[in-house]
Amino acid sequence: KAGVTQTPRYLIKTRGQQVTLSCSPISGHRSVSWYQQTPGQGLQFLFEYFSETQRNKGNFPGRFSGRQFSNSRSEMNVSTLELGDSALYLCASSLVAGQHEQYFGPGTRLTVT
Amino acid sequence: DQQVKQNSPSLSVQEGRISILNCDYTNSMFDYFLWYKKYPAEGPTFLISISSIKDKNEDGRFTVFLNKSAKHLSLHIVPSQPGDSAVYFCAASTGQGAQKLVFGQGTRLTINP
Q1: How far is B104 from chain A (nearest CA, A)?
Q2: Is residue B92 scored above 60 in pLDDT?
Q3: For residue B23, how many other CB atoms are within 10 A of its CB?
Q4: CB A51 within 8 A of CB A30
């Protein structure tokens, strides 16, 4: 069974631009969560989607948004990029909403210059 | 306010010996705890979990112990193998919005031959 896939794996953007990251969950998994990993803050929860609905949101500004499609694939968008948005963005999937065990993809490394 | 803390950034253990990784938490609402292992350039991999109604959970070489009164959990790896060298993250969640995992900063474990 294929794991969680994320595209692109690496991305370089300029301050002020926007970016869209994509995540395909494990086949059959319907819940997708996003996390940001930085050296200073560690792994922080961004949001969780299930059945195309956002169920939970972390403490991030409104520049961070996401969505989920009917096939459970998810995208997250960051608008008006700031230098501090440089991070590894990880997507995790689980079978259903609220399931503790989540399975992570390899991440997208975003660099903002 | 770091609700989950891993106070040891690194740990070095000889192959064949026991590795003990520690984690402390402050939020008494946490009722489910997980350990993830992360290799460079990969997403975290789920290792083992424990519910707050238990004080021990075992899976092969991995055992997690939970001390609720001390708000402390630990991961024991016996015997340690070179492939165990990785960064280990402790994570916690609450019954409400269980999908939102709160992670510690991680401990880099190095197994020496």
Answers
A1: 7
A2: yes
A3: 27
A4: yes
